[in-house]
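hi! just following up on the protien thing from before. the input was this:
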Amino acid sequence: MKLCLATNNAHKIEELQSLLGEKFQLQTLNEIGCFDDIPETADTFDGNSLQKAMYVWERFQIDCIADDSGLEVDALGGEPGVFSARYAGEHGNHENNMQKLLKNLEGVENRAAQFRSVITLIINGIAHHFEGIIRGKIIHEKRGSQGFGYDPLFIPEGYDRTFAEMSIIEKNPISHRGLAVAKMIAFLKEA
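and the predicted 3d structure came back as:
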């Protein structure tokens, strides 16, 4: 089954394809001829995920998956939240985003946080939503070189290593995106 993943982010595509397995073939936005900068103007992960998926469906009539994910830090009232990718201003500047987060947490004891992902799957024009959450904490300095985003700063509950210190095989089953995808796969198998 072919599904368009509403992104051109190579890390997300690789991560999601490894979770979906061989029964599903992901296509990028570029591969379906979408070169637009898809808007993300909602103030929730659910809203952004639906907005991106509907954008692809309405223009290309292609079954698609869109996700919006981010880091929510308890002591910062849920920041960076939907602004995770552009927390320090420039979209996708992971280094600046991590530095801003560490600066905002200076002197803060409560470093509890969670990664949250909401996936919208549109099949034949009908939207379905799946959510995954992984709790953990933010450490004081980066560790590891795998993954992307805030992975070098986040240790999931029950582990002593950051996401960036885990292989994709270790991270995928426990990650927020992995948990949401597992729900989506279960739904697809039943459908």
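The CA atoms of residues 6 and 66 lie 5 Å apart.
DSSP finds five helices and six strands in the chain.
cheers
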